[in-house]
Amino acid sequence: MKHILLIIIALCLVLPVFAQAADRITGVWYNGEKSSKIEISKLEDGSFVGKIVWLREPNDDKGKPKLDAKNPDDKLAKRPLIDLQVLSGLEYDGKSKYSGGKIYDPKSGKTYSAKAEMLNNNTISLRGFIGIALAGRTDTWIRTTK
After folding, report:
1. What is the pTM (predicted TM-score) of this model?
2. Which helix (H) or strand (E) segment is 37 a member of?
């Protein structure tokens, strides 16, 4: 009976540590070019999503908010880039790694598979790819504030 009680207490102490490790990815991040800030948050299902919360150049030549103009869907091409969800479905794999996500590139209008790794508390290595991860591009995101 004592062993079972000790195991339960140990689990209660350890499980929050794993949850905190997974949540390290939440926050606001500069993309590699520092042209936008993406806020990553956790959904109720435990997956992580990211939306654009800031653009270095938020307006077009006419002074109007930039739109998702490269999107192949005409209806979606009219939505503003600010508050646009560009990252979805990332799942924590353990040891600072995330996989199973999708990342949308508003510059091309294309969506790619995504995986990420927390290099440290302030740096994410995010890879977008088609098919296998070897055929893709890696971007390094740096933690910032809104």
Report:
1. 0.85
2. strand 36-42
